[in-house]
Amino acid sequence: MATYLDFESKIEKIQEEIVSAHAIANMEAVEKLQKELEKEVSKTFGSLSDFQKLQLARHPDRPYALDYIKLMMTDAYEIHGDRAFRDDPAILCYIGWIDGQKTMVIGEQKGRGVKNKIKRNFGMPNPEGYRKALRAVKMAEKFDIPVLMLVDTPGAYPGLGAEERGQSEAIARNLFEFSAVKVPMISVVIGEGGSGGALAIGVADKLAMMRYSVFSVISPEGCSAILWNDPSKVETATKALKITPNDLLEHGLIDDILDEPLIGAHRDKQTAADAIKKYFLENVKALQELSTQELLDQRYKKLTSVGAYSE
To answer: Is this prediction's pTM over 0.85?
Structure first.
């Protein structure tokens, strides 16, 4: 069963009518309803608020990293463990092929269903997850394999055990090490990019966001709680934080916006996966034409330009 958000109620009603028309083989009605559906989709998704985009980024049917890996990769082999503590299921590392290009894919995985969500810790990595990601990137560098990172987390896990094992150090180490990796690095925010938990696999030559994704220093809920101590201010906080792709592109914090299907990646996963694959392959090809020093210089310039301003 498809899940519909509050603002999709009219779309849900039309789609139910299409199913009913199909059931009685009334193709004339189906055709009419399809046109009506296209108009309603354009109207609804053409004027979304920042809060509605946040809802889409968190949509329960939205494709997660593992969905994209299955849709994009062939002969994929999963890499486990950080060789220091344990394997963290909240971060996936796969080596395989994307249209003939050998690739290392690293993704944050939220999980579906109660048991899987608990197993994946709701997509909140522990320090061993970030250390596993670093191990995979170092392996990719050793064998000259480009890296694709898929960001989707509410944030790094803030539990006592994670802090005892050096959560902040693990994130900081990734930022430091990734900045000097000698292979092309591409990162795509596929859903929710939360704080340092997202940034830990967001240092790359190219940082892009899906049309309905967000990237923020804090969740809108956390922001409204700190600033106003009022949960009803979530929409206000979402708008004030400037967390949507258009806002971040305007401020030079990301490089590109990927046009997932207008109705959302959760309604057409294959088209969304194709958009990521195309972006990755095109940019890897361009980056591979650079010398190692040119690649590192370009990445250094990109990273140090973040936050620059003029009066």
So the answer is: yes
